[in-house]
Amino acid sequence: MKVITVFKWLRNPQDALVKADGSIEWPGVKMSANDDDPAVMEIAAALASGDEIIALTIGDGDLAWAAARGATRTTVITDALTEVNSSVTGAILAAAVKHLGDAEVIIIGDSSWDYGVVSAFIGQLGRPALAGVTAAQLQEGCIQVTRKLGSVSQVLEVNTPLVLAAMATQSEKNEPSMKQVLTARKKPMEKLTLEELGFSSPFTTVSSLKTRFPDTPPAVLIKGDDPVCACEELMAALHTEGVL
Amino acid sequence: MSMKSLIIITDERRVGGMLMAARTLSEQVIAVVVGSPSLAETVATWGFERVLNLEPASGIPAEAYAALLAEVTADIKPRLILASDMPSSRVLLAAVAAKQNAAIIGAVRAITVCGDTIITSRSMADDKVLEDIKTAGVIAGIFIGDDLEKPQTQAVAIEHIEQKNAAHIKLKGIIEPEGNAGLLTAARVVSVGSGIKAKNDIKLIEELAQAAQAEIGCTLPICDDVRWLPTHRVVGSTHNQIAPELYIAIGISGQPQHLAGVRDAKIVVAINNDPEARILKNCNYGIVGDLYKIVPALTAAFKNLV
């Protein structure tokens, strides 16, 4: 089963430099794998069953990341960067998937870094889709998907073509070895530009006016040098809040 | 402004917050409930102008009707589409937004109107800042803003959408988590993170939880890396998202995945010896100090309440 995976499609929000006036900068920050990207590759390996896994990324991140985790080849859209409009990023990724040809299953990390990109990607592909997916396997000609929904997990039977947004339930346990990384760098890499992809944004203008600190009051911090006094102060505050 | 808003609902999560956000620009807010008739009946009492209900066939999840939902809502032509961050809601939003050629914005906290301009405020940089975004066309937002208490209003009539053309997605089974029922409904939760040094020290947390009549939670590493507490105790976006009255985070740094799990808690208290810990910027009250000294004192304080 041919599978396309998407990785490193956003910068890590934790790497943003927040300045005193609430503005943010991204000095030297590259596209980064999110916590769910390893789960994407695990599910891809389970479904591909030895067939081709094509990895897709955008921007300037490490191209060998997915290849070191089982991708057969990698395609990067080099001049696609993080957009204010998540729909544009989603549409670029969807256009790239279409460029790569038919795949039965397409998998992206269901990352809270930007659920907007995940939804835009799913919407632009126009295929049946499931989010919050924690596992998938082939079973009797169908795909059996486990996904988290609220406090329960559902086991679902689905047909292809299909888009899955995969969610990690644990940190990556088997990071690739240096040898696997070096071997991955020799796998086929295709570099494309938006022009070569024939991409033009179909969306109306979205513009960022500013970034600012939230209006919510700052936390009340109590010094814990005297634990008993600190706890008395806290308990008095909790009484006032009505939660005791 | 007299523009329509459409809110996609698969459960009661943040319905009030989404309705209030949409009210800032729309006199007509339409709810489309992809779920049971009983959910639609509840939503019908929230104060929407119209409530549409697409009831999935037995054993078919909401996402199977994503394409149908996009088709039947196409004529509404909303300026704003909102859905919660539940996985099924986001998939439905994806289809509707694509049909409406809408700009999708994630992590929406609030909507404001300034003259003819609609400004969407979304969380950025790990919730450290808000970004105000101006959009010319249709907006589709994934809403994570504050929820509101359900108002008492007269129910509107429910308009039923005929279910057909479901994608091949069938429910084969449900895996119920073991033992987390108390955590999900608890009024108070005491949770522990990697600031605790040894497994035996969990006893301190248990004593505090008992004194505070609270359930015990933990971060993912406490379960996943050191296995000091079971999976069903993990609080976070990938495990248990909870909404207690009081959440006490002990020795927890405040990773985004964890904080997302307590976004709906009323009061968050953090105990941490690192004044720069992220949790101390994302709580209501924080005690900066050694948990091994603070926790026993807090346990005694709760015992004195009784």
- CATH classification, class level of chain A: Alpha Beta
> Which runs of chain A of at least 5 residues are low in confidence (pLDDT < 50)?
none
Question: Oligomeric form of this entry?
Answer: heterodimer
What is the CA–CA distance across the termini of chain A? Answer: 56 Å
N-to-C series of helices and strands of chain A: EEEEEHEHEHEHEEEEHEHEEH
The major pleated sheet of chain B works out as: 9 strands, mixed
What coarse outline of chain B follows from CA principal-axis ratios? globular
Shape of chain A: globular
Low-confidence stretches of chain B: none
- Binned strand content of chain A: 25-35%
Helix-strand makeup class of chain B: alpha/beta
CATH class of the largest domain in chain B: Alpha Beta
CATH topology (level 3) name of chain A? Rossmann fold
Q: Order of strands side by side in the largest beta sheet of chain B?
A: 7-6-5-8-4-1-2-3-9
Structural class call of chain A reads alpha/beta
In spatial order, strands of the major sheet of chain A run 11-10-9-12-8-1-6-7-13
Number of helices of chain B: 9
How many strand units of chain A? 15
Protein architecture, described:
The complex is a heterodimer of chains A (244) and B (306). With 244 residues, chain A is α/β, with parallel strands linked by helices. Chain A has a single domain, classed as HUPs (Rossmann fold), CATH 3.40.50. Helix content of chain A is 27%, strand content 30%. Chain A has seven helices and 15 strands. A nine-stranded mixed beta sheet of chain A has the order 11-10-9-12-8-1-6-7-13, with helices on both faces. Chain A has a two-stranded antiparallel sheet with strand order 2-5. The relative contact order of chain A is 0.17. Chain B has 306 residues and is of the alpha/beta class. In chain B, the strands form two sheets. In chain B, strands 7-6-5-8-4-1-2-3-9 form a nine-stranded mixed beta sheet, sandwiched between helices. Chain B folds into two domains: 5-161, HUPs (Rossmann fold); 182-305, TPP-binding domain (Rossmann fold, 3-Layer(aba) Sandwich). Chain B has nine helices and 15 strands. The longest helix of chain B is centred in the C-terminal third of the chain and has 15 residues, at 291-305. The chains are: A alpha/beta (244), B alpha/beta (306).
